[in-house]
Design goal:
Blueprint (H helix, E strand, L loop, with lengths): L1 H16 L5 H15 L2 H29 L24
């Protein structure tokens, strides 16, 4: 559901900014607003946050991959059971 809403929002934004009649004015207004409201400090903070999150995510993926492969020689793999999932369609 989130993907559908995201796709609809992206499509609406594209239609808004690529409108042949008013799109150029809208893009220029957006460019001006961004230049006036977002400064270098904002971009630096955004880069730091995304870099930090990317590093954390990369580390977490590595940990999960190692766990899926049985862990390192120092760790004992743990055995867990996965509960059964009912895949019957709703309303049936």
């Amino acid at each position: 559901m989130k993907r559908i809403l995201l796709a609809l929002a992206a499509g609406a934004a594209l239609a808004y900014f690529l409108d042949p009649d008013n799109g150029a004015q809208r893009r220029e207004r957006a460019r001006t607003w961004i230049a006036d409201n977002l400064n270098e400090d904002t971009w630096r903070q955004a880069r730091e946050i995304t870099t930090s999150q990317t590093q954390w995510l990369s580390q977490r993926i590595g940990e999960l991959r190692d766990a899926a492969r049985g862990g390192s020689a120092d760790e004992q793999p743990t055995t867990t059971t996965t509960p059964a999932v009912d895949r019957t369609p709703a309303g049936v």
